[in-house]
Request: fold
Amino acid sequence: MDARTEAQPYAGLDPRLDRDTSNCSIARTLEIVGEKWTILILREVWYGSSRFGDFERVLGCPRNLLSARLRMLVEEGILATETYKEPGSRSRPKYVITPKGMDLVPAVMGLLQWGDRYRADPEGPAMLTRHRGCGAHVDAQIYCADGHAVEAEDIESVPGPAFRMKPAD
Reply:
């Protein structure tokens, strides 16, 4: 069964306009990572920061907000904490990316790529992303499960297993 036959029960209806959006995966994801400081914390983790003081210094985020965002990222399993201790200091947590957090890299790279194209400084991007193995520029792209590069205009959205129509008035 392909995507077109799966959509048959809704033939004649316009699922784009009459669908129930209360179970949207994008909306649920934005509840976790859709706030500016959260994305910027993730950016800093990928740039190599791991300590509260590092995030605070680089981001300029208020301490209480930073603490709440880091706690939420840990609770959601996007970051984990490990203990470190500098000589003469007490033990403290450092934040490390988890596999669940690594799965957000394509989304954040997409935001970075868009920002570099449309919102960068007139001199160019502040940071460049390169493949550590060969030094080539990293580009966020979309591929189908069969490995074909897919352009945005070639993406089709069809009802999935949790699709629901809005309740009748």
Summary: The longest strand covers residues 79-84. Strands lie at 79-84, 92-97. The chain has one domain: 14-154.
